[in-house]
Design brief:
Blueprint: E1 2-6, E2 9-22, E3 25-36, E4 39-40, E5 44-46, E6 53-55, H1 61-74, H2 96-110, H3 116-121, H4 125-139
Antiparallel strand pairs: 1-2, 2-3, 3-4, 3-5, 5-6
Helix pairs in contact: 1-2, 1-4
Length: 140
């Protein structure tokens, strides 16, 4: 485990799970987990076939599914079209007005109020689902 510190305060930790290690070198990493100040961030998983990072979220699967359904409805995406948590709103053809409408629909569906700063940071389904989960937990 690697630890990044600054001014004698642990700011983040990085945990690597290698599939192959040669001496001190890691030739392939499958999972990277990050932690900041005692909290944790979503883990990043590298897929061996495509070598792309996959973000996993803290939101419940049912929350992600509900957010996907709302995004699908707001953007008039066909039922047979692929829509996953990693789907970026811009890649789905959403402009800034569409994103505002998505946020408004999420607020209504989950009975929460999303701050403007937070709304501007949402770029994909997972980020929206994670934000909704955080707001629901804070509300409870």
């Amino acid at each position: 485990m690697a630890l990044v510190t600054g001014a004698s305060v642990a700011m983040s930790s990085l945990s690597l799970k290698p599939t192959q290690a040669r001496g001190n070198r890691i030739s392939s990493v499958n999972v990277v987990s990050l932690a900041f100040g005692g909290g944790s961030c979503p883990s990043l998983t590298m897929k061996p076939a495509s070598y792309r990072f996959k973000q996993s979220c803290a939101a419940k699967p049912e929350t992600v599914d509900k957010v996907c359904a709302i995004v699908r409805k707001q953007l008039a995406i066909a039922e047979d079209a692929e829509l996953t948590g990693e789907s970026k709103f811009a890649a789905l053809g959403a402009d800034s007005l569409d994103t505002v409408e998505i946020v408004m629909a999420l607020e209504e569906a989950f009975d929460v109020t999303v701050e403007e700063d937070s709304a501007q940071q949402i770029t994909n389904v997972l980020e929206a689902a994670d934000l909704i989960e955080d707001m629901i937990q804070k509300k409870a």
